[in-house]
Amino acid sequence: MVILTVAAVVTYSNIFNPKKHDDHHKAASHKEHHAPEPAAPPPAKSSHSEEKPCCDEAKCNEKKEEEKPCCDAEKCKEEKKECKEDCKKSDCKKEEGKSEEKQHHDNEKPSTSGSGSGATEDEPKSSSSEGKAHSEKIPDHVPYLMIGGGTASYYAAIAVRGKEAEAKVLIIGDEPSVPYNRPPLSKELWWYADPKSRDTLEYINVSGKRRDIFLESDGWFVPTGEISKASHGGVSLLKNHRVKRIDTKSKKVHLDDGRTIRYDKLLIATGGRPRKLKELQNADGLVRKKIVYLRDVPDYQKLEDICNESDTKRITEIGDGLLGTELAYSIKRKYPKLDVHQVIKGSGNLPNILPKELSELAKFELESNGVKIHSNAKIQGAESGKDGRAILKVSGEDLESDAIVVAIGIEPNVKLAKDAGLKIDPENGGILADSELQAAEDVYVAGDVASYEDSRLGRRRAEHWNHAEITGRLAGANMTGTKTKFWYQGMFFTKLASKLHVSAVGQTDSKLDTVAVCSKESEKQGGAKKCVVFYKEKDGKLVGVLMLNMFGPAIDVARRLIDDKVKVTSPTELAKLFPLYEAETPEKEDQKKEEK
Ligand SMILES: Cc1cc2nc3c(=O)[nH]c(=O)nc-3n(C[C@H](O)[C@H](O)[C@H](O)COP(=O)(O)OP(=O)(O)OC[C@H]3O[C@@H](n4cnc5c(N)ncnc54)[C@H](O)[C@@H]3O)c2cc1C
C-alpha cells in the first residue's frame, strides 16, 4: 500500500511508507483463521413447539416415500390420531397442491421473539412452524414468491409492484416479524437508545426523530388468506415459516408445516447465518450460554440483557471485521463502565478491508475509545469459571467474560438452493446467478446469498445492506421481465470509533493494490484524520474507493469513477474530487451531536 499525505488542497507532499503489504498480511483471511464449526445444539423450543404433529414428519421424510411430507399434521390432529413414526400417506392424505385453509391470519403487532441466530441453516428458529399445525390461510399459487423475509425480498417485492401495479407477491420468512433493518442492531439501538429500546426496537436519530428498525408496519401487508382475491394485488407476508424444499420443475415450494405453494417466478433471498468458531465447539454448557452470534433481534436482545445485568463486568468480542469492531465500539459507548475487550487475529482492525497502516489506525482509535484490544491473538478455547462467568483462553491469557460475542463473518444460506439442484459458487459461496440475478428458469437471487456476474468487477458476492436493497430491486424488476444487468455498485457505511467513520463502494479488498491519500488538516484542528483509499486492479484501473471520515455525495463520485474504469495514475489529483479538506458539513454537525 502507498499512503500519500497531503497538507493542503494545492500541495501534494511527502509519500511515506510506500511498501506493499507484507505477504503474511496478504494471506490473512477470516476463513483461514476461523474455520466454521459443526452445528450447535438446537435452540430451546418455544411453548408452541410442544404441540406434536400426528406423525413424525422427519422420520417419514427420511424414508423418502414421496416428494411431499408424509401426512397433513393439522388434519391428523383434528382426527385425534396418534403420532405415528411409520405413517403412510394413506394415514392422513392431503390433496396434491391444495392448501388447507383453516383460520384467518390476523394482523398483529410486530413481534420479534425467536430463537436467535445460533441455529444452523437447517434448524428451524423456535418461532418457525416446523411440525406445527397450520395457523393461517395461504394461497395455493402466487405469481411472485420470495423466500426470506429480509431486506432483499422486501425491496424485490417493492420493485415487482413498481413494474406491475396489481402484482400479487408473497414473502415467506422464518422470523416472527415484518422485514427489518439489521444495521441498527449493532449501531443505533446502542447509540441512540432510550430505556425501552430493547423491546420497542425504536431509537431517536441524530435529527431528533423517533425511528424503529422495521421496513413496514404489519398493516401494510395483505393478509395471506386474502392475497389471491385482492383485486389490486399487494404484498403478503407469511411469517414464522421456513421453506423446506423447492421443486423448480413443478414450480412449487414446500413449507415446514407440509403445505405447498406454486409460483410463477421465485426469488431466493435467504441471507446468511453467523459463522461458528471452531475453537469454542467443545465448550461446556455454561460457556455456550454466554456465546452470542449477532444476526437477529433475539441475539441483540440477549446481548443487551447481559450488558444490562448489574453484575456484568466484561464483554469479550471475537472478530476484527466490520460487525465485531463496530459492536465493540457500540457496547463501550452505551455501557462505558463495562470492560470491553476485542480479540483480533492480526495487528489491526478490518484487515480484510483497510490497508495495514489504516487498519492499525482503526485499532488505535478504538483503543482511544476505551476498547481493550488483544492483537495477534490466538484463541485456545473456553471453560466455565467459578462465579458463573466464561473464561476465554486467549494466547495464554484467561479472559473472564460475561458474554463472548463471536463476529467472524457469515455463511450464506445456500442449502435450499443446492438441494433444488441450483449451482453454488465454489469461490464466493453464494447461489450462482448471471448478471440479471437469474439462477435458473424463473428463479432469481438477491442479497447476501447471491453470487452474480458484475460486468465491471467480475463475479462477486457482497454482504451489505445497500447491496441487498439494490439486488433486491434489480431481481424484482427482472422477475417482471425487465432483463436489466447488474450495474449499480452498492455502498456501505459504518462508524467504528468516535473518530472513525468508514464509507466505501466497489471492491474494497485489502489484498488488492491500494493507495491512500490522507489530509492532516482536519487532524490539526482536532478533528479526525481524513483519507481516501483507492483500490486498483493490476492494470491500475480503479475498482473500489473507501473514505475515512468523509461524508456527503462523494460516494457517488467514487461510484462513477469505478464505472468509468478510471486509471489511478495520479492519486493526489484523483483525491481532489473528495472532500479531504472541507470545512463543516451538516453531517459533521450531526457527528458532533452524536459525540455529545
Ligand atoms: C448486526 C448487523 C449489522 C449490520 N450492519 C450493516 C451495516 O452497517 N452496513 C451494511 O451494509 N450491512 C450491514 N449488515 C449486513 C446487512 O444487514 C445484510 O447484508 C442484509 O441484511 C442482507 O439482506 P438479505 O435480505 O440478503 O438477508 P437477511 O437480512 O439475512 O434476510 C434473509 C431472511 O431469510 C430468512 N430465511 C433463511 N432461510 C429461509 C427459509 N428457508 N425459509 C424462510 N426464511 C428463510 C432468514 O431467517 C432471514 O430472515 C449488518 C448485519 C448485521 C447482522
TrEMBL record:
Sorted alphabetically, the Gene Ontology BP terms of this entry are: apoptotic process; mitochondrial respiratory chain complex assembly
Primary subcellular site in the record, as a coarse category: mitochondrion
Q: Which domain of life is it from?
A: Eukaryota
Q: Which InterPro entries match?
A: AIF_C (IPR029324), FAD-oxidoreductase/Apoptosis (IPR050446), FAD/NAD-bd_sf (IPR036188), FAD/NAD-binding_dom (IPR023753), FAD/NAD-linked_Rdtase_dimer_sf (IPR016156)
Q: Which residues form the FAD/NAD(P)-binding domain?
A: 145-469
Residue span, Mitochondrial apoptosis-inducing factor C-terminal domain: 475-525
Where do Basic and acidic residues bias regions lie? 19-36, 47-109
This protein's cofactor list reads: FAD
- Tagged with keyword Transmembrane: no
Q: Where is this region: Disordered?
A: 17-137
Molecular function terms from GO: FAD binding; NAD(P)H oxidase H2O2-forming activity; protein dimerization activity
Q: Keywords assigned by UniProt?
A: Apoptosis, FAD, Flavoprotein, Mitochondrion, NAD, Oxidoreductase, Transit peptide
Which Gene Ontology cellular-component terms appear in the entry?
A: mitochondrion
Q: Which reactions appear under catalytic activity for this entry? A: A + NADH + H(+) = AH2 + NAD(+)
Task: Please state where this protein is localized.
Answer: Mitochondrion
Q: Return the similarity comment.
A: Belongs to the FAD-dependent oxidoreductase family.
Q: What is this protein called?
A: FAD/NAD(P)-binding domain-containing protein
The organism is Diploscapter pachys
